[in-house]
Amino acid sequence: MTIGGLEQLFGYSAEKTILGKSVNQTASLDHQLQFSRQLQAITTRIHATADIDQIMLDLSREMCALFACDRLTIYAVADDKTSIRSRVKLGMDTFRDFSLPISEASIAGYVALYKRPVNVANVYDEAELATHTPRLQFVRQVDERTGYATRQNLCAPVLAADSHELLGVVQLINSRDGASFSGMVEQGVAELCDTLAVAFAQRMKPPVEIRTKYDPLVARAIIDAAELGLAARSARRKGIDIEDVLVHEFQIKPLEIGLSLSQFFRVPYEPYRAQRNKPAALLALFDRDTVEFNRWLPLEDAGSVLKVLTTDPERVMASGRVSQIFSYEKIIYCVTTAEEFRQTVEQFFDGAPVAAKGSWGFEAIDGVRAAEQSAADRVHAAIADIFRREDMADIAVTLQPQVGKTVSRFRKNGALESIRGSTVIEYQLSFPSDEKSG
């Protein structure tokens, strides 16, 4: 019997199925998943910036593509609270901002007045407009002046999470398939409005001085200053990393901490990814103990560009040791959280702390400033080959502080005694057969 015959017999539309789901259902789920991922990427970038106007301009085309609309306008409430003023306008010929009264004289004004979203299939259909309120109007003068034909219009309010105060309006114009904006787009715009609410509210507050790598959490209202101070005291008392306290005791997501680190260090945030290609050739020079101590590792090789993952980009860049080991035209430093760094190390070294041949086992010297650390690293680079001599016993590195001396002894197994001091760096090589110094 043909498929058409089955449809007539059982009264349903036959579809191919995959694991019990129709092809159409599977495609729809894939589309929703892709939509969600793209929306998350946009909201993450908005959260990560202090310059909301610039990021919205940068992301406006991506948002139009995501929501499949021709035009996008984002309004902010004017200082007098009686109108909304355009902040971002994509698809319009003018660069001038324009204002709309908060009233029923326009769709965006109506949404601002009543603080509820509106999805209109045809703005010229007065009967459809009247379903919202008999006084709702569409401003036709813009279409008449520009020759652009508006049909679909989706508007949603940007409201403060705590007070429900109006902060702005997001407006989409004309869906690219000519139909009403879908429920998925409505939900996506609602999520975007929630993100913009945080960004708008933060912009209205006096700027928070960024002194530590976790202060951006306070600036973005993820945690307040008192809570951050409490977390720091708890970490000191327990002798653990403050990040562990923030994640486990204050329930702050690693993503939020990563974005805070990114803002503080001014480098990209790189989260842990379960599916990542291990750069075996790059890792051949390292062993797990060294990587865990130094808190950086090579992540990706893209021809002339090397991506480096670290929890402290400033220290690693100041040391200059990456450029000493690798010769690349460009080095991109990415920051990650302490926990995500541990996960990546576990992933790359497969849980086996086995030293690699020719490993660069040079640890950071505690208490030495960046310039002095760089000098120490140059000494390390000069004597690197001597590490491999079978008759070598120890390498002693002596730093002359203002008062007294502190000695560090590097052993062949990579062990390092604590060093305190600065200024003058000397080193001495000890061999069983004779005494040699440099």
Describe the secondary structure blueprint for this structure.
Blueprint: H1 3-10, E1 17-18, E2 21-22, H2 23-47, H3 52-67, E3 69-77, E4 83-90, E5 99-101, H4 107-114, E6 118-120, H5 126-130, H6 141-146, E7 153-159, E8 166-175, H7 183-204, H8 215-219, H9 225-238, H10 242-248, H11 254-265, H12 280-283, H13 288-294, E9 296-302, E10 305-310, H14 313-319, H15 321-325, E11 330-335, H16 338-349, H17 370-382, E12 394-400, E13 406-411, E14 424-430, E15 435-437
Parallel strand pairs: 10-11
Antiparallel strand pairs: 1-2, 3-4, 3-8, 4-5, 6-7, 7-8, 9-10, 12-13, 12-14, 14-15
Explain what this protein looks like in three dimensions:
The chain is α+β, with helices and mostly antiparallel strands and 438 residues long. It has four domains: 21-204, Beta-Lactamase; 215-255, no CATH class; 280-349, GMP Synthetase, Chain A, domain 3; 380-437, no CATH class. Helix content is 40%, strand content 20%. The chain contains 17 helices and 15 strands. It starts with a helix and ends with a strand.
Note the quaternary state here. Answer: single chain
Unreliable stretches, pLDDT < 50, 5 or more residues?
Answer: 1-21, 352-371, 398-407, 409-427, 433-438
Number of helices: 17
Number of beta-strand segments: 15
**Helical content class:** 40-55%
**Strand residue content:** 15-25%
Mean pLDDT: 76
Helical/strand content category: alpha+beta
Reported by name, the CATH topology of the largest domain is Beta-Lactamase
Work out the count of structural domains.
4
